[in-house]
Design a protein that fits this description.
alpha/beta; Rossmann fold; five-stranded parallel beta sheet; binds adenosine monophosphate
Amino acid sequence: MSQPHVLLLGAPGAGKGTQSKRIVEEYGVDHITTGDALRANKGMDISDLGLEYDTPGAYMDAGELVPDEVVNEIVVTALGEADGFVLDGYPRNLEQAEFLDERTDLDAVLVFDVSEAELVDRLTGRRVCPECGANYHVEFDQPETEGVCDECGADLIQREDDTEETVRERLRVFRENTEPVIEYYRGSDAFAEVDGEGTPDEVWDEVEAAIDERV
Ligand code: AMP
């Protein structure tokens, strides 16, 4: 049997990254995340495309979407290398959803519901490890030693786009561009809504059940 094709949708901070890691461990699929791919290429010169900014990082630091031609390219390459996958952070607008539709099918499309107040708390308090990608929170999920990654010992950082001003802009961009993507998938057999406000273990129980029902 081929490996599952899973899509996670939800606002920034809804827990897509955390649950993606578990899906990778449980189902042995690839994690395709445009956010990480773009962070690794923030300084890439895209000036020849004649767009508003010359690097992906400039869009990201403003909380805006990186243009589709840059992001679609990343996804095409990653899909070509994956058997099963969990896709996280893409598609973020209807054009990307239609582009994806032409290139692959999806077994499970899971939407994480989390209130805006909770999202702001989660994102502005988030600290990440620049070395291994582990996530922490200044209140809800502290590392053993303040500011130091439990997994690899590196110093934790706050993502440049996790400041309150940029977080508010990212949530506005989500409502405007990505909520229509949720409506685009609603009604398909693959679609399921998950309560994203529980603990990671509670959310995982729902995620695993929803995937197993659909593959
Ligand atoms: P994330 O880590 O998924 O929250 O993504 C961080 C930033 O990367 C976003 O605020 C966007 O600027 C950019 N980004 C990630 N995925 C996409 C996408 N599918 N389309 C456009 N921009 C994206």
